[in-house]
Amino acid sequence: MNFTEATLFWGFLLVYGVVMYALSPKSKNANSFYKGADDQGNPVGQWSLTASIFISWIFAKSVTNAANLGAAYGVVGGLAYASYWLSIPVAGYIIYLIRTQTGARSLQDFLTSRFGRLAALAFAAAILIRLYNEVWSNTAVVGGYFGLPGEWEYYAAAMLFTVFTLAYSLKGGLRSSIFTDVIQAFVFVFFVGAVLFLIIPANDTSALLTNGEFRLNAGFDLLLVALLQLFSYPFHDPVLTDRGFVNKEKTMLKSFVVAGLLGFVAVFVFSLVGVHARLNGIDAMGNAPAAVGQSLGLAALFFMSVVMMTSAGSTLDSTFTSLAKSLAVDLPRLARRASDKLPSMRVGAVVMVIFAFLGNLPMFAGTDILKATTISGTMVIGLAPVFLFYGFTRWSPWSFHLSFWTGLGLGVLLAVGLIPASWAIGDGKYAMLLGVNAYGFLICTAGFFVPLVLRRLVGRSLAAGEA
């Protein structure tokens, strides 16, 4: 990185951090810090909530992955990754049903009321792992625009970015996160548009939008995986689900639907960066946006870095606030060591600081950012029956545990390579992933219903005996 490049990139990072801190509102009470309300207690507005959901789920690693898949499989790869955003309307509708039918104030409340406290604790552990992964996997992407892993610039940029994001998160908690999300959403959309302005004229539009084949071994297997995970993947991400309880039910649902559709379009559009690389013979080298940016010149690379910083920042601040709520509010209530009164903002601030440090340790150890999505997504397939079929039971802890732990076990076996080859569907790169998710969904669903069926059979036997 020469002097001009260093001045531009480091200068933007510094300006970004200062501006975000200066503009973010300060929370004066715990309701604002943990729930995003204003000083008068008013909930988040609909369009602010929509922008927040939209940008906080467009992770830096996600847009990088989308572009990489576009480079590998053309538009099929882009569609495959963008399809994950369709899970946002799915999650919004199910949360709407949960709130209106059960009166639950959080997913932990809901799980406790239907499946018991141990079920809620198991769920809390799963989402903490997810949140932990979100820290390093986003800061590492930002660091990659300043240097290579192992270089001081890489680590310095990632840690400076962490400090800036932590600073304004400590200032306002969830309220600050949602407010800055609106700014970051506008910046993201503007610079994605700037990137497309450079890419589209350099290609035949028809070729750009039709490159790729709908075959199992050409990315279609990953598209099917995404569609299977629509009903489980979003529920282990409190960055998303926490926002399902900060406003009125109908307002929330509208925000989720609009944000999900916008997210699908935005991620697919950005995957065209990878398709451009594929059409023009550019070696993605595991980071298609950076490779394309370098090939198009300094301006394009700078635009790419701004896209990554804004998407990473919106996710990281949401991760800090979700960690604060999970560990300062939700877990103490599950352990029956806290009342309904919200804890001091200082407790949440301490949680943020600790995880800002611990969450970056995997980055220094060197870890593949793709693992933060693919492994965790498979491990939680057992959540799909829990949220899809909860209406079939009023109380059934075993239904949760047989479904959840079966999915977790299958995810672990997949990660360590112990799933039999016969489970693979097709012969593509994601054949085994597709097989585990398809068969796993059926097995987890069976596990959910087994206790309900047994209970009904026992009830009939008892009734017959009494007769």
Name the features.
single chain, 467 residues, mainly alpha, Amino acid/polyamine transporter I, sodium transport, transmembrane helix, Sodium:Solute_Symporter
How do the helices and strands line up, and which of them pair or pack?
Elements: H1 3-23, H2 30-35, H3 46-56, H4 60-73, H5 75-82, H6 87-102, H7 107-115, H8 117-143, H9 152-199, H10 205-210, H11 220-228, H12 238-241, H13 249-279, H14 288-296, H15 298-334, H16 345-358, H17 361-365, H18 371-379, H19 383-388, H20 397-415, H21 431-466
Helix pairs in contact: 1-9, 1-15, 3-9, 3-13, 4-5, 4-13, 4-15, 5-11, 5-13, 6-13, 7-8, 8-9, 8-15, 9-13, 9-15, 9-16, 11-21, 13-14, 14-15, 15-16, 18-20, 20-21
Task: Please describe what this structure looks like.
This protein is mainly alpha-helical and 467 residues long. It folds into two domains: 3-374, Up-down Bundle (Amino acid/polyamine transporter I); 376-466, no CATH class. The chain has helices at residues 3-23, 30-35, 46-56, 60-73, 75-82, 87-102, 107-115, 117-143, 152-199, 205-210, 220-228, 238-241, 249-279, 288-296, 298-334, 345-358, 361-365, 371-379, 383-388, 397-415, 431-466. The longest helix has 48 residues, at 152-199. The relative contact order is 0.17.
Mean pLDDT: 90
Text of the CATH class of the largest domain: Mainly Alpha
Beta content comes to: under 5%
Count of discrete alpha- or pi-helical segments spanning 4 or more residues: 21
Distance between the termini: 85 Å
Helix content range: over 70%
Structural class: mainly alpha
The CATH superfamily of the largest domain bears the name Amino acid/polyamine transporter I
Overall 3D form: globular
